[in-house]
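assembly run, all chains below
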Amino acid sequence: MHERLSFFVKRDSALHHLNPLTKIVLALSIILVSIFSPWYWTSHGLLLVVIVPLVFIGKVANEYFTSALRLILPAAGFIFFMQAFFQPIGQTVIFNFWFLDITQESLLFAFRIATRITVMISAFTLFLLTTHPSELMSDLTRRGLPPQFAYVIISTLQILPQMQAKAQTIIAAQRSRGLDTESTFFKRIGSVVPLVSPLVFGSLVEVEERAIAIEARGFTSKKAKTSLYEISDRSSDKFIRWGLVILVIISIVLKLWLS
Amino acid sequence: MAFINLNNVTYKYPLTKTPALQNINLQVNEGEFVAIVGPNGAGKSTLCYTLAGFVPHFFKGEISGTVEVAGMDSSKSTLDEWVLNVGLAFQNPFNQISGAKYTVFEEIAFGLENTGVPRNEMKPRVEEAMKLTDISNLADRSPYSLSGGQQQRVALTSILVMRPKLLVLDEPTSQMDPIGTREVFGVIRKMAEGGMTVVMVEHKMEWIANFADRVVALKDGQVLMEGKPNEVLTSELLAENGFGVSRYTSTTREAKKQGLWKKENLPVTLDEAVEGFKK
Ligand SMILES: Nc1ncnc2c1ncn2[C@@H]1O[C@H](COP(=O)(O)OP(=O)(O)OP(=O)(O)O)[C@@H](O)[C@H]1O
Ligand SMILES: [Mg+2]
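ok done. output:
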C-alpha cells in the first residue's frame, strides 16, 4: 500500500540540516511577512527570491513543482477566479460576463491574493518536504511538548490512511454479502450503518491492543527518553530564528506605521 | 526460587462472572522455553498478560494468589518496572506497530528511546536485533507497507531489542509461512539457550515438540496437564478435550489401534513418525 506516508523526502541539503524548529519558524515567518507587509509586491518577491531558491537549496525541486502543479496551482486558481468575479471594486471594466463585471482593479486584487495563497502553501510544503516527521516530534518533545501529545499527532497522521483502507475492505466485504452502496443517496446513507460498527468496535479493540503494545515498549516509562536521531541545533539556527522573528516584527510595525 | 512463580492465581476480568484463570500454579526456571496450548477462550492470552504485568495493572479486575516474575511481586511493583524485565508480543502484528515511526529501524528503536538507552548504544543494538531475526533488508521500509509475517517479525524484534529477562509471546508466528516459523522458533530457542526465559502460546504442535522444553495445556482457565512436549501433546486427555493434535499423532493413533504402530509413545513430528514406522 502507501509506501510513503509523509511528504518528507530524504536528501542531503543545507535545508535538511536545519533544526526542525528553525524550519517551522521559517515557514511561519514567510507566511506572516506576506500577510503583514504593507507593499503589494512582497508576496511576488517572496515567491521568486525566497521560496524558489530555497526549493533548489533544499534539493526538492522535482517534488515541489509536482505538488505545485497538483495542489497549489488549482487552489490559487480557484481563489483567483472567485476574487476576480466577486470582488466589487474598481471602475475600469475590462470585460463583462452575464451580470458580472471584471474590472482591472478586481483582477489585480485577485492576482495578489492568489500569489499570497501560493506563498503560504509553498512555505508549508517546503517545510513538510524537508523535515523528517520523527525528528520534528523528537525535537518538540525535547523542548517540552508532552510525548503523549506528540504521539497523538503523529499517529493520527499515520493511522488515518489505514482506517480509510480498512473502511474500503469492510465495504467490499459487506457488498459481497449484498449490501447496496451505489444506488440513491438515501439508500446509501442507510447502508453506511453496517459499516460503522465493525469500524468503530474494531477500532476500540485495536486501541486497547495498541495501548498494550506501546506500553510494553516503555512508552510511559518514567526514565528520561532518548532519541535515535541526533537533532542538531547550532548557534546558526538560533541566529536564523531570531533574525526571522525580527523580520516579522518589522513588517508588522511597518504595516501599522504606513496605514 | 523459580524464575516465574504463580501460586493459586485466580483472575476475573472486570464485569465478568466466570474467572478467566482459575487456581493456576506454574513454576518456570530461568532459561526454560515453555509452550502454552489450549482451545479458544482457554485463557492463554490472559495468562500472557498476567506474566507481562498487564493483568492486573492494565486490565484491573479481581486477582488472587501470588504472581512473581524475576524477583518482582505483581502486587508490589508497577507496570513501569515490569516492562523493563518482561517483553510481550502478541498475535495481531498490525496493532503492535507503534504508529509513531516511519521506518522499521525507527520502529524497533522506539522501546529503546522510551527507556532511555543512550544513542550510541541504540544503533548497534537495533542492527544486531534485526540481523538476528533476519529483517535487516527491511530497515528503511514503512512498517505499514509490510506483509503480516514481516510485521510479526518486526514486532518480535522490537521486543527482543529491549533484552527482556522473560519473553512472553502470544501466537507470534500465526501469519508466517513454514520457513518464517522455523526461523523464528530457531531464534527463540537461541535466546532461551542464552539464558532468556520464554513462554509462548502456539498452535503449531510439531514446532513445539521440536523446540520447547515443556508444554502447559490450558482449558477453561485451568491447567489441564503439563510436562514434556511429547508426553503432553500425544496424551489421550488432550485429544478427548478437543485440543488440536498433530496429524502424525492422530494418524499413528489410528495405526496403533490396528496394530501397525509398535512403539509405546505416539509421535508428534514427521521425523518421529518415520523413525517409529521403520522399526
Ligand atoms: N478484555 C476482556 N474483558 C472481559 N473478558 C475477557 C477479556 N479478554 C478475554 N476475556 C475472556 O476471558 C476468557 C479467556 O480469554 P483469552 O483471550 O485469555 O483466551 P485465549 O486462550 O487466548 O483464546 P484464543 O485462542 O481465542 O486467543 C474468555 O472467556 C474471554 O471471553
Ligand atoms: Mg488469545
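Residues 14-131+231-258 of chain A form one domain.

The first helix of chain A runs from residue 14 to 17.

not gonna interpret more than that til we talk
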